[in-house]
């Protein structure tokens, strides 16, 4: 990861805080799939997700980075990325897979950064796992000017976005495979 202008050394410093109410999952399966193309849905949906993002960004924050797969892909696309998550286990996996990456522990609804610190914030498949989705969206709005993410009902997302002063520029949904439709007709 680049240091100096636009890199982590010039980013706002922060104390990484994990809420005391959060507990590590009882079991975290080792992330062998992170290097196994086609193993999970990420490989199918990620290209469409990345189409929605700018090609590069001076400062990008991934909220709910897990084991860092999206951070690594963003960095490969030219982004300078900080990934935050509350899971110490997943953060250890992220650091092991990307020793040069910048990962820290943070509550998504109380991000430890100054306002407007990032050019882009992403939450790939993480909003559905946070305790306070509206608070998380408000925090994303506070630390950046653009926000992308999915989870809850679509209405819940749009209400949270609207109340945070954001607008949605584009929305894409994956097509349901025909075999699934055949098994579960309306």
Please give a structural write-up.
- There is one protein chain.
- 30% of the residues lie in helices and 11% in strands.
- It has helices at 42-51, 69-76, 88-97, 133-143, 154-163, 178-183, and strands at 60-63, 81-85, 102-105, 120-123, 147-149.
- It has a domain at 54-183: Vaccinia Virus protein VP39 (Rossmann fold, 3-Layer(aba) Sandwich), CATH 3.40.50.
- Residues 1-31 and 146-151 have low confidence and may be disordered.
- It is α/β, with parallel strands linked by helices and 186 residues long.
- The chain has six helices and five strands.
- α4 packs across α5 (154-163).
- α4 links the parallel β4 and β5 (147-149).
- It starts with 41 loop residues before the first helix and ends with a helix.
Summarize the structure.
With 186 residues, this protein is of the alpha/beta class.
Descriptive key words:
five-stranded parallel beta sheet; 6 helices; globular; 30% helix; 186 residues; disordered N terminus; alpha/beta; Rossmann fold
Give the helix/strand layout:
Elements: H1 42-51, E1 60-63, H2 69-76, E2 81-85, H3 88-97, E3 102-105, E4 120-123, H4 133-143, E5 147-149, H5 154-163, H6 178-183
Parallel strand pairs: 1-2, 1-4, 2-3, 4-5
Helix pairs in contact: 4-5
Which class do the helix and strand fractions yield?
alpha/beta
Strand line-up of the largest beta sheet: 3-2-1-4-5
The appropriate CATH architecture of the domain at 54-183 is 3-Layer(aba) Sandwich
Strand content: 5-15%
> Care to count the β-strands?
5
Mean pLDDT over all positions? 75
Order of helices and strands: HEHEHEEHEHH
Assembly state (oligomeric) = single chain
- How far is the N terminus from the C terminus? 48 Å
Low-pLDDT regions: 1-31, 146-151
CATH superfamily annotation of the domain at 54-183: Vaccinia Virus protein VP39
Biggest sheet, in brief?
A: 5 strands, parallel
The helical percent reads 25-40%
Shape: globular
Quick one: CATH class of the domain at 54-183?
A: Alpha Beta
At the third CATH level, what is the topology name of the domain at 54-183?
Answer: Rossmann fold
SS field, number of helical segments: 6
Radius of gyration: 17 Å
């Amino acid at each position: 990861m680049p240091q100096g202008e636009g890199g982590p050394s010039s980013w706002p410093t922060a104390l990484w805080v994990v809420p005391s109410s959060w507990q590590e999952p009882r079991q975290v399966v080792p992330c062998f799939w992170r290097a196994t193309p086609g193993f999970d849905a990420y490989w199918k949906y990620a290209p469409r997700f990345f189409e929605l993002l700018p090609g590069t960004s001076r400062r990008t924050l991934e909220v709910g980075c897990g084991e860092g797969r999206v951070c690594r892909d963003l960095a490969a696309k030219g982004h300078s990325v900080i990934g935050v998550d509350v899971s110490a286990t997943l953060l250890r996996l992220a650091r092991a897979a990307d020793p040069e990456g910048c990962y820290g522990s943070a509550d998504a609804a109380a991000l430890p950064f100054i306002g407007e610190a990032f050019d882009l914030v992403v939450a790939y498949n993480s909003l559905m796992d946070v305790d306070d989705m509206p608070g998380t969206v408000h925090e994303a709005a506070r630390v950046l000017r653009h926000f992308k993410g999915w989870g809850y009902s679509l209405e819940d997302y749009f209400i949270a976005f609207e109340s945070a002063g954001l607008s949605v520029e584009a929305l894409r949904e994956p097509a349901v495979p025909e075999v699934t439709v055949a098994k579960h007709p309306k």
